[in-house]
Protein 1
Amino acid sequence: MRRAEFEKAVASAGIAADVACLDCPDLQAAWRISEHADRLADFFEQLNDATVFTHAYEGGHPDHDATAAAVHAALHLARKRPKVFEFAGYHAGAGMEFECFLGEEDSPETHWPYRPLTPAERDFKRAVLHQFGSQATVLSQYPLVYEPLRIAPAYDFSQPPHAGRLYYEHFDWGLDGDKWRNLAVKAFRERGVPPVC
């Protein structure tokens, strides 16, 4: 379902592209970090002058964090290293924080990635996001004011992304931050990748 929604979103954005899928069910990515890192490294090897956009490590959703970890691990495994940018998703804060990176909630307009979206850009993004019907409840909460992007920093995936309770720890998803980090460190060790990358 998510793959079909993604393909609809890509088409609605007017992008003609081949879509590759890692075929990972929801809430399972933390158990597949090493597998995903291998596959992503293979993708990186096949691409020239690639640019990768990925999730930030922010404790909003365990799959988002696992994707960030897999991308960073893949950078160590691949000979070709694409440029990697990350976008802000959501994380714990005063409730659920959107469209800002950790530590930048108070004044996002002072940070480089925070150019406000124009009304036309907002409408375009809303139409693309509308293709993800299964995620309508979450996506409807995004204010669509900014499109924050930044060069992906190095992370220590053996440590929590922030102090306090992670956003996904508010839900009974079978995974808390300690378990997630243990899985990430194990995956990195299996691939000979340091957890700080």
Protein 2
Amino acid sequence: MRDFWNQRYQRPGYAYGTEPNFWVRQVAHAIPPGPVLCLAEGEGRNAVYLATLGYEVTAMDLSEVGLAKALALAKDRQVPLKTVVGDLADFDLGDQRWSGVVAVTMHLPGELRADLHSRITNALAPGGVYVAEAYSPRHRSMPGIGGPKEGREDFFYSLPHVRSELGGLNLEHCQDIDRVVDEGPYHQGLSAVAQILARKPKE
């Protein structure tokens, strides 16, 4: 997979644009002050946006090529950004470390996603927030471009599964909606997406 993403990010321009995801922009204010981790962040559009709001942001991705472009975008926007290359299968998120964890279109096999959601729950500081948007199973019948490929049904974000996997967090928003996506050449058109805002209890 690293070769796949490196090849995609080696192409001119930004595969998913340079502006933040709509859901991230909408709920960024819900993240408490402090360090934020952006998982599977690719070329950095969401991480850089959060850095412009004053958060101390670390962008994590499998692709060193994507993260190099994230650093270039941060330099262009004149904000600091930390990057770390890692694999979500074994990446150490730490313990009660983050005010926010952000994941946009982080599509993984169901078993790995469940394990990662458990690790995210542990990694959030009390009061910390998990923000996610990903394609839902309904997207398979939508005209929009993007999302997991055929035969990878468990890669979609099914809300019943996500609710179960995030049982240690308070789900402040958990919805499957239709929206027009305009995020670079690879995410376009009317799409079905799951939007998550979950908060770790303070006690």
Protein 3
Amino acid sequence: MHAPHPFPTKEKTKKLSLLFVCLGNICRSPAADGIMHKRVEDEGLSDRITIDSAGTYGGHAGGLPDARMRQHAMRRGYELTHRARRVESSDFDRFDMILAMDDSNYDDLMRLAPDVASQKKIVRMVSFCTTTHWDHVPDPYYEGASGFEKVLDILEDACNGLLTEIKNNRL
């Protein structure tokens, strides 16, 4: 397990806001968004945590998540209805934590961040994994069914770890 990340100090009454980011915002980040939404809802924390996702590339803007990811996610009880969008400069002000799916996304976000304080909000999604050991969330776009299942396994683990950290450190 990786070292825990400090969360920004905020008033307990203010919502914690999370932004999941991958390349096109059609596979990994909307899946993380859907998984985390369900986890937060199941824990009764929807009034305390805001969740969204975006991509570093805007070519899929407005589109639904990849049909294969939606299908695999639905089998696990996650409905992915998010519409793809590109990361915007205002996201660095709107979100407390920006979670990158891989090193390329992480590096792109670091370049897009307007200042050092914004860079400190960027973390790797896999740093919250507790049962799987990956250095990134692989892009399943060119993989078969097993690639989508692997990504969902990693994201479920990371979302569970992230929610545990939030509950232990923020609530």
